[in-house]
Amino acid sequence: MNEERIKMLIKEDQWMMEILKCAKSLNLPDWWICAGFVRSKIWDTLHHFKERTPIPDIDVIYFDPTIIDEIEEKILEERLKSLNPAIPWSVKNEARMHMKSNVPPYTSSVDAISKFPETATALGVKLDENDHVILTAPWGISDVVNLIVKPTPLFTETKERVEIYENRITKKKWKATWSKLEVFHST
Fold it and tell me: Do 45 and 1 form a contact (C-beta atoms < 8 A)?
């Protein structure tokens, strides 16, 4: 599987395209839908699942340093819920999320994605002006398409971040859903 195949899988998925079009309609700066939305589609396909694996939320991110109030994110979530109330929307402005993550400020949404805990989760998609699917993968797609779960470099730097990665692996129980995964531990 390559980047073009991933984009085609998403383009052919009516549910995913509807979600992307809802997010695009907000006209947010530097917006992406990321993490499990993309990763789960790839892993479901590679495991030949007939049914979509449920995901807890749809992560819409954007980058706007001019309005970093969390209330704005909640307003945007409500706008998305009015467009599609069946979706568990989660909206975050990455211009403020570095404070929550205790890292230096991000420079863009893609910079923030590059600092997600796992390389296989550090993925994002959006639609361009012609509704073509755009994919970003700061650490490449090799790990996600080879069913490898390992930490991004940021989550190997300190004991605290290693623990965050390890706790996520335990909590998410991805291998119970996608049995072919190879999970690498930091410890």
Answer: yes
* Tokens 């970093």 found at: 68
Q: Which domains does the chain have, with CATH numbers?
A: 3-140 (3.30.460)
pTM of the model: 0.94
N-to-C CA span, the chain: 30
pLDDT tens string 67-112:
889 999 999 999 999 999 999 999 999 999 887 777 889 999 999 9
- In DSSP terms, 90 is beta-bridged to 59
Angstrom distance (rounded) from CA 20 to CA 125: 8
